[in-house]
């Protein structure tokens, strides 16, 4: 885990290794870490997310993201999700809509995140 300041935004980067984020309650751990580090933006690598996160019918993504946003935090999922998006029109649409907003982004890499926060 590391903290960085990007254009005045305190960002908490989670490591790619660590416990899988596989249940709605796991959002509590993310939120707690954010509060503990006074971060307002979370960056979660794709590797940390259980495959069910990308199956919208599981409701896992919605429950985790809703909890994070309810606590006025922003989140970026960083990494290659092209395989998941190719397999699901619903996920493709969800990612597209999320990326249009300011609270939840799906981005390919950290450079894209830095560019987007800096914009």
Give a verbal description of the structure.
41% of the residues lie in helices and 20% in strands. It is an alpha/beta fold. It has one domain (2-112). The longest helix has 12 residues, at 89-100. The model has no long low-confidence stretch (mean pLDDT 96).
State the shape.
globular
Seen as an oligomer or otherwise, the chain set is: single chain
Based on CA atoms alone, the radius of gyration comes out at: 13 Å
* Residues in helices, as a percent range: 40-55%
Give the domain tally: 1
Which regions contain 5 or more consecutive residues with pLDDT less than 50?
none
Please give the order of strands in the largest beta sheet: 1-2-3-4-5
Please work out how many helical segments DSSP would assign: 5
The largest pleated sheet is described as: 5 strands, mixed
| Tally of strands | 5
**Structure class:** alpha/beta
The chain-level mean pLDDT equals: 96
Terminal-residue CA separation: 24 Å
Order of helices and strands: EEHEHEHHEH
Fraction in beta strands: 15-25%
What would a concise description of this structure say?
This protein has 119 residues and is an alpha/beta fold. It has one domain (2-112).
Topology:
Layout: E1 2-6, E2 9-13, H1 26-36, E3 41-45, H2 60-70, E4 74-78, H3 82-87, H4 89-100, E5 104-107, H5 110-118
Parallel strand pairs: 2-3, 3-4, 4-5
Antiparallel strand pairs: 1-2
Helix pairs in contact: 1-2
């Amino acid at each position: 885990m590391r903290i960085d300041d990007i254009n005045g935004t305190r960002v908490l980067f989670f490591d790619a290794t660590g416990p899988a984020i596989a249940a709605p309650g796991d959002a509590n751990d993310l939120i707690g870490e954010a509060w503990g580090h006074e971060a307002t933006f979370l960056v979660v690598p794709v590797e940390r997310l259980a495959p069910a996160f990308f199956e919208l019918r599981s409701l896992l993504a919605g429950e985790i993201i809703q909890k994070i946003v309810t606590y006025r935090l922003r989140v970026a999922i960083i990494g290659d999700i092209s395989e998941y998006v190719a397999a699901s029109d619903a996920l493709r649409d969800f990612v597209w809509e999320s990326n249009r907003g300011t609270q939840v982004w799906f981005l390919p890499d950290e450079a894209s995140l830095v560019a987007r926060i800096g914009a």
